Amino acid sequence: MLSYIETMTPPIKVFFPSFQLQICGELFVPEPGSPNRKGAAVVISHPLTGVKEQTSTTYAKMLANAGFFSLTFDAGYQGESSGEPRGLEDPHQRVEDIKAAVSYLTALSGRIDPERIGLLGICASGGYASYATQSDSRIKCLATVSAACVGRMTRHGSVHEEHAARENPQAIATALEAAAQARLMAAENPTAKLEAPMMFETDPAKAANNPDSFFRDAAAYYGTRRGRHERSTQRVPPQSYDLMVSYDSFNLQHLIAPRPLLMIAGSEAQTLHYSRTAIGIARGIKVLFIVPGKNHFDLYDSLRETAPKLMDFFISGLE
User: Fold this and answer.
1) CA 153, CA 259: separation in Å to the nearest integer?
2) Read out DSSP for the chain?
3) Taking the domains of the chain in order of start, what are their residue ranges?
4) Is the peptide bond before 211 cis (omega within 30 degrees of 0)?
5) What is the pLDDT along the chain (319 residues), one digit of tens a residue?
6) Which of 13, 43, 82, 223 is within CB 3.0–4.6 Å of 22 for a Cys-Cys bond?
7) pTM for the complete prediction?
């Protein structure tokens, strides 16, 4: 019997347009001997600063073993997808990338059933996937893992629940000033290739002294063999910050209904409050599944509790 994360069939490298960019993805096909899901497919969108080869692939392999087509992809400006400046985090581009991935799958007539397409968003993509589902009826069900909203994170200056109640004017001013200065430098020297700053330290030894537990946990994933990847640099151009500051993932969460919604988060995740808030706003069929003892990043590669829940959800949501 195949495990949740091992597959025998290599994925198919694919490309599709999103706005003016070319998106690079990998299509995982159902494993031989897996159940017939009648062309059901799941789009999987990766975390902030991540690439498709990390946690997205871990979940794609699990779903392929369960009989689903699974499409992972690099967001625009990131990984193997096109776009400059490299690493730009543009929420509206990220949402369009998800919708473009759905469009790609709907064009695979004879293999994918366009009435059986679901969506899985991880970390920031839990927010992006929510936003996309709110306004795209082609997405028949939505699941998130360790969901977060980059807009609220930027406006509040933190992912922690104690900062979630109110916006931080200083954090907003700092973000906007950094973006303004980066845009000014780019205008003055358009051909310059400026290296973006790292969003957080990935060396676990250096991160151990960081008083913020979220960034210590991030380094334990991105800075070790669990999640290290050469194209995942954690470098985010400051031009991203003014794009993020006015964005919100969950304000219209009620528009997902009547389609089913599953949000999964660890009990020790600093970001758990995002899922609780989003579920509270949502209507219809909605489930918040909390995994005891797990932090935000544990669920990137620990599938013991999440895999059965996700398989049941997509089986029923895409039947």
Assistant:
1) 27
2) ---SS--SSPPEEEEEEETTEEEEEEEEPPPTTS---TT-EEEEEPPTT--TTTHHHHHHHHHHHTT-EEEEEPPTTSTTS--SSTT---HHHHHHHHHHHHHHHHT-TTTS-TTSEEEEEETHHHHHHHHHHHT-TT---EEEES---HHHHHHHTSSSGGGTTS--HHHHHHHHHHHHHHHHHHHH-TT--PPPPBSS---HHHHTT-S-HHHHHHHHHHTSTTT--TT---B--THHHHHHHT--SSTTGGGGTTS-EEEEEETT-TTHHHHHHHHHH--SSEEEEEETT--TTHHHH--TTHHHHHHHHHHHHT-
3) 12-149+248-317, 198-234
4) no
5) 344 556 678 999 999 999 999 999 999 999 999 999 999 999 999 999 999 999 999 999 999 999 999 999 999 999 999 999 999 999 999 999 999 999 999 999 889 999 999 999 999 999 999 999 999 999 999 999 999 999 999 999 999 999 998 999 999 999 999 999 999 999 999 888 888 999 999 999 999 999 999 999 999 999 999 999 999 999 999 999 999 999 999 999 999 999 999 999 999 999 999 999 999 999 999 999 999 999 999 999 999 999 999 999 999 999 9
6) 82
7) 0.96
Q: Which long-range contacts (CB under 8 A, 24 or more apart) does 312-315 make?
A: 313/141, 313/143, 313/260, 313/262, 313/287, 314/40, 314/42, 314/63, 314/66, 314/68, 314/118, 314/141, 314/143, 315/37, 315/66
Question: Using an 8 Å Cβ cutoff, are 291 and 264 in contact?
Answer: yes
Q: Starting at the earlier edge strand, list the strands of the sheet with 21-28.
A: 12-18, 21-28, 69-73, 41-45, 117-122, 142-145, 261-266, 286-291
Q: What's the chain's length in residues?
A: 319
What's the maximum distance between 2 C-alpha atoms anywhere in the chain?
Answer: 59
